[in-house]
Design goal:
Blueprint: H1 2-28, E1 47-52, H2 57-66, E2 71-76, H3 82-93, E3 97-102, H4 110-120, E4 126-129, E5 142-145, E6 149-153, H5 159-163, E7 167-172, H6 175-189, E8 203-206, H7 210-219, E9 224-229, H8 235-246, E10 250-256, H9 261-265, E11 274-278, E12 287-290, E13 294-298, H10 304-308, E14 312-317, H11 320-336, E15 341-343, E16 348-353, E17 358-362, E18 371-374, E19 398-400
Parallel strand pairs: 2-3, 3-4, 9-10, 10-11, 15-19
Antiparallel strand pairs: 1-7, 2-5, 5-6, 6-7, 8-14, 9-12, 12-13, 13-14, 16-17, 17-18
Length: 401
């Protein structure tokens, strides 16, 4: 009898071990598995997308602000544009309630915000708050007008942000998005907890869901990714992009040349990820385009602080007209900032350069000896001296010798 009981116990133990092994198998290989998840987003009707600086951001915002009748809620990182400030004062004089959340200690722009706050806070119908004790930075950029119009921006309310930087403005009258943004504003303005409020599916909000959404967008790419970023230093996002490039996903990234750290950060990406650092227009926008089918735009930078510690706001769009508009601008910027790369194979003896031309002289022993002269499109030389058989009238991306 004891022997039978013992055999039963052993049998049950073996069965238990088998079950444990079966259920453990996925976890043994989990670090080699990237789990994909879907992002549930809605089509957004009554929307307009504006490209800066080609479209005048200042004029666009002034026109929308003109429509305000009761209340304007503004959450902004930098506010110094004189015409926007005057419009705010004018609306307040006409009994429109103006509520502003502004960053108290912005990087490099503290004096400008201090000056703006000093100018506006004494005005009737204007109330200004900062939320420095809640987030590392209040870096969001959005406006809600009369709880009817939502304006989500990559730009600050500054002269350069609205008139000369590469930025985007999305405007919608979508009722659900506007109510959700207004609730977000109220929760910050009144120092409440937004986690208690259900946000719209399309909204990307730091520190609540931005990391999860942006990582999911990148992970779901099947063909290609185009990204705009002012700066880029989040290790998780960099590693994820490197992994996607190993899956033969074509990835292009445009960064600002004016951010010194960008030159070093490019070394962390795989060599098959293409990166351009552009100087003009100043690259300030934050965008991800996935397979030319879905797109993120907003204030969220690809940094740990921006995703996990700041207050940031962005939006996911899947409307073809919006995606194509930014996709076309991306490749306009990409192609307008071509750089020269000369690939040596021991046939070049000298390189001569100046501000206006680059001359490449081939080794005299080479069969077809000639000069190659390349100059920018803006430079039109009056005399071209040929000592060979080729002249090029514009920059090319690569020269193979």
């Amino acid at each position: 009898m004891n022997i039978i009981k013992k055999e039963i116990k052993i049998k049950k133990l073996i069965e238990l071990l088998i079950l444990i092994i079966i259920f453990s198998l996925p976890f043994l290989f989990l670090k080699n598995i990237t789990l994909k998840s879907k992002i549930e987003i809605k089509n957004i009707e009554n929307g307009n997308l504006y490209v800066l600086p080609e479209e005048n951001g200042e004029k666009i915002l002034l026109n929308y602000l003109d429509s305000a009748k009761k209340e304007v809620n503004i959450n902004i990182y930098l506010l110094s544009n004189k015409n926007i400030i005057e419009k705010i004062k004018s609306l307040a004089k006409n009994n429109v309630k103006i509520n502003i959340i502004i960053e108290k200690e912005p990087f490099g722009g503290g004096y400008l915000n201090y000056k703006t706050v000093s100018e506006l806070e004494t005005q009737k119908n204007i109330e200004i708050k900062n939320i420095i004790n809640i987030y590392s930075l209040n870096h969001a950029k959005y406006i809600v007008i009369d709880n009817k119009i939502s304006i989500i921006m990559t730009s600050n309310l500054t002269g350069s942000g609205l008139n000369s930087s590469r930025d985007f403005i999305f405007v919608t009258k979508n009722k659900e998005i506007t109510e959700s943004l207004n609730n977000l504003f109220r929760s910050d303005f009144e120092i409440k907890y937004f986690w208690e409020i259900k946000s719209h599916e399309n909204l990307v909000i730091s520190p609540i869901n931005s990391r999860k959404i942006l990582e999911t967008l990148i992970n779901n790419a099947e063909n290609c990714l185009e990204l705009y970023a002012e700066n880029f230093n989040d290790e998780k996002i960099i590693n994820l992009l490197n992994k996607k490039s190993e899956e033969n996903i074509k990835i292009k990234i445009i960064l600002s040349e004016d951010i010194s750290s960008n030159k070093n950060i490019t070394k962390k990406f795989n060599e098959n990820i293409e990166i351009k650092l552009i100087k003009k227009p100043y690259q300030h926008s934050k965008v991800i385009i996935v397979d030319k089918k879905i797109m993120y735009i907003g204030s969220v930078n690809f940094s740990m602080q921006s995703m996990d510690q700041n207050r940031e706001v962005g939006i996911i769009l899947k409307e073809k007209e919006f995606i194509e508009k930014i996709w076309n601008i991306f490749y306009k910027d990409w192609n307008n900032n071509l750089s020269i790369e000369i690939i040596f194979n021991n046939l070049i003896s000298h390189i001569h350069s100046s501000f206006t031309s680059l001359s490449t002289f081939f080794n005299k022993n080479y069969k077809s000896k000639f000069w190659v002269i390349i100059w920018p499109k803006t430079y039109k030389p009056s005399i071209i001296q040929k000592s060979g058989n080729l002249c090029c009238s514009c920059f090319s991306s690569k020269i193979f010798i």
